[in-house]
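Support case: user asked for a sample of complex input and structure output to validate their parser. Sending the pair below.
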Amino acid sequence: MHNQGVINLTLMNISFAYGLILLASALACLLRVGESRQMLGASVRMGLQLLAVGYLLDAVFSINSPLLVVFVLVVMAGFSLQVMGSRVRRKMPGFYRVMGSSIFIGCGAVTFLFCSLVVGYAPWYDPRYLIPLAGMIIGNSMNGASLAAERLASEIAERREEIETTICLGGTARQSSETAVRNAFRAALIPTINTMAAMGIVALPGMMTGQILSGTVPAVAVRYQIAIMCAITGAVAITAYLILLQGYRNYFTVAHQLRERQN
Amino acid sequence: MTENKKICENTLMVSVEHVGLVRHDREGKETTILTDISFNARQGEITAIVGPSGGGKSSLIRLINRLEDPTTGRIILDQEDIMRLDPLLLRQRIAMVLQKPFMFEGTVLDNLRRPFLLRNEPLPADGSPEVRRVLELVSLSPDILGREARTLSLGEQQRVNLGRALITGPQVLLLDEPTSALDRPTGDRLALTIRDICELQGVSVILVTHDLRLAGKTADYLVYLEGGRIRETGHPDGLLNNPNSVELRRFLADPGENEGEHHA
């Protein structure tokens, strides 16, 4: 029963799927609600990007060299940094250094522990495991990291009076930004916590359904899903914490002075 | 003659020496906020820094407890350069009350305990001598201790704010526009309280205000600041009745109009 093989989708099958997009686009055009061209453009872009990634992963899988796999992971992390840079409007001082090191340490440690202790496959760089698992961990941490950085900046800007009052009463930079840091950490973790709470009831997660579609028995797919959710939560929490720990300091001088408004 | 005698009696507490402040914005553009500021503040006296808004008054007192640092010059607290002191210990000796009273969540007692909490010191109980002394100083009744601080009137909040700054016994008290958020009678009562604090506790008060009434009523010594420079100093009676500089004469003639849009 295990792994009866997957039904391959031919280009013909895919073009039927694209027919649905054409239909939706034609409807949008007919009803004059707009977005029909954007829908088409984005769907073409999505198709090309995924096909390219497919070929790339095929190549990486067949070459199977640790250097190449690590290179792919570094490119993924670099891309996530670029996405965060464009998404976070109010950047803290030293933004890229803080975000980069936090993603590197947070995701790196969790991916390493997860792959070696939880899944325990060999060799450690096997791209079939390492790339998708690291991808999910990095992708989710990226969201958490953006939320943490964005929220910290707005909290510090809004709480200037509270922060300076605390400093005037003899408090440290850390004491004065405690509330800001706590709120930013909560903001970073809420989406992950909500996803975990709704998992299996409101939505069937993508990785699990993907494994089931490709022939894994549900009992095994479910175990993978549980394990990866734990890893994602850990990575998001560690990354966000590292960002906040380094980040709040950048708003202060060594003499516990709140720096001038950044933007 | 009596005034001179008074100055000799009171020891020098804070001495601001040739202080200048230049700020840089994000594009690296320089703005001169303060130029060559020198004055002294003595123990048990109120020094008022007066002038139109935007003249650098608030920036000046922020330098004294090191919320910011001057670009040039130095500030001496009781014979020590403040840059050589631990900033956290310095702020225990020089308390500051900001313009808008910020109340932390919780009761008035929680707010009065805050400085002890921040310093990891044992918290005073509601009947403790520190709490009682400070409530008396800022003329608040002990019944107020259990109330939510954020539900108090602005006048009461400003008194809690003062009490919170005084409860740990600072040597110097910096006040940034303490009455600006208050209506006139409330502000006048607070001015009397500030006078009492200065005399009873022997602290050196440095007060920033654009309110000439407040300055005239409370201050022992007056510094007139406009466009980031000291234009005139002296005793309030002499200065306000008989100004020498063009700037102060113009400000006295129309303090309202000068506010916010001064011409250097």
